[in-house]
Each structure stands twice: as C-alpha cells, then as structure tokens.
Amino acid sequence: MTEPATTRPGGPVPARPGPRGSTVEPGAGTAGRSVIPGAGPAPRPGERATLRLRETGAGEPPRYAPQWLQLREPADAAARSCDLLDPLRVRLAGPPRRADGLVVHDIGCGTGSMGRWLAPHLDGAQHWVLHDRDPCLLHFAAVASPSSAADGSHVTVETRRGDVARLTPRSLAGASLVTASALLDVLTREEVGALVTACAGAGCPALLTLSVAGRVELDAPHPLDQEIAEAFNAHQRRDGLLGPDAAAFAAEAFAEHGATVRLNPSPWRLGFGQAALTEQWLRGWVGAAVEERPELAEHAGRYLAERLEACGAGELRVVVHHSDLLALCRPVDGTA
Q1: Are 280 and 39 in contact (CB under 8 A)?
Q2: Cα–Cα distance for residue pair 26/3, rounded to 1 Å
Q3: How far, in Å, are 6, 94, 124, 156, 176 from residue 101 at the CA level?
Q4: pTM (predicted TM-score)
C-alpha cells in the first residue's frame, strides 16, 4: 500500500460530501432518471468504484458517489451480522495482544461506514488504517471516524491510498483485524486469494461484510423478477469477477489456510422508511441487468416504472440478500 496520510480526529459526517456527487445517465430501461454512481453498473468491469483493484490507467475517477455510500449506510449497519461479533471479541481479547491496542485495516473504506459501525462495538484502544483509492473519500472517512470504543477507549485513524491486489502479509504486519464491506463480490479469484493469503500470512482475523448473495425478494412478486435477477448476477460475474460466488469462495480459501470460518446472512430489508435507497437500488439493479442483456430493455423499462410507482406509494418491500464472513486465521509470530 502507498501514500500514508496524517492521522485525523473524529467528527460528524459532512453534510455535503464533496464534488463527486454528480449523477450519470442510466442505461436503457431505467425510466429516464439518473442513477447515483455506485448504485448502477460501472462501465469499466473489474474495478470497484472506490478501490483500484488493478492497474486501469492513471486519473480514472472513482465511481461511487459519497451520496450513494451515505444513502446505504443505515441499511448496511442494520444488515451486518452482530452474531459474528462475540467470536471476534473473544479472539481479539485473547493472546497475543498488542499493548497499544487493536490495529484494524479497513480495505476499500469509502466514507468510513465500517469503522463507524464496528469501532463502537469493540473494547479497547483502536487504531484504524483506512485504505481507499479516492483521497476525497479518505478525507471524509477520517473526519467522520468514531472517537471512542465501546468502553470509552480512544480511537485513532490514518489513511492510505492503495491497490488491493498489492496487499501482502508484510503490508498487514501487526494488524489485529482486517475488515471490508461490499468488496469480495467485485474481486476475481486471484484477488480474493491474495487477500486471504495476506490475512493468513499476517495471522489476523478478517471480518468481510455485505457480499452480494445473488438473491432478491420483492413484494409482490412479478414475472420478470427472476429474469432480471439472473441478468444482474451474470453482470456481476463479468470478466472473471466472483459476484454472488465470492463469499463461498473466500470461505473455502480461508479454510484451506487453516482458519475457522463462519458465514452469516446479512440482508437489506427495505420498506417505506428506505424509499430513497430502494429507488436507487432498483435503478442500479435493473440497469445492470439491461447492460448485460440489452434485449430486456423494453420490458425492463415497464417493469422498473411499475416497481418505482409501488416504491413511491410505500407499497414495495425488498429483501436484498448479502453474506458476512468471519475468518479467524491462526496467529503467526506473535501477531493478534
């Protein structure tokens, strides 16, 4: 990883998250409205919006708008599996322990939602190392980081710009924990393998949340639901990306390294109170399906219009299934 930045104190989430809040025109079949970048299909396969996965050219702008990350943050927080926290706490409390507290690496941190959720659930002093490709998002993540742990201990933050494909056991040396959110499904087998190897080589546990599971439930059912879902899942698997297969693949890879692995469901449950998020998710979901299968455009446009009307009327309920993974890697050379 490269370009470490200075540590910043905690603070409130900025009300206006910055210049990258512009919208992009959706693909065919999205009822003529804009999709916040990150809610819809990214035009360059193989690149997560806020984290460079491989070299794709200098100056390429990130594709997750801060507005999208803020819009989904409450749903993410509600969805993450709290059942994984107890075994994680037991591991972090056991030997070997760092005298100066936990060191947590957050890979592809975005605006820092994982830290805001997890740090207050863990006891003891914590130092978070936030990794992302976008310096603007890194700034917001640092400024909006939590200032205290569950027991009131101090939480500090530093930021690093970098490439997930270059993570090694050496770059995670001294880490107590590696975290990520909505990351695994936009990696290839090789990239997930490299991440697993880095965690196992560093001897630190990994909590990797909100990987797309490939299943969606909408109320009431519609004849096109399954076709749209299958096209979306195919879009997620473009160019060798793991998509809905990511969590299971990562679990197997960790187990092969001798880690104890748990996979728990972490579904978004979207109703009337999440109408804005549901609307953006719908546009992105259908847009990706149409990008994968352009012949769906005409029918998908009518489908989306019907779904958006139901959403606006408070009549639509959606469950978007995700998976959370906890891997307790074997300690190595005195690391936690």
Answers
A1: yes
A2: 34
A3: 19, 12, 6, 11, 9
A4: 0.84
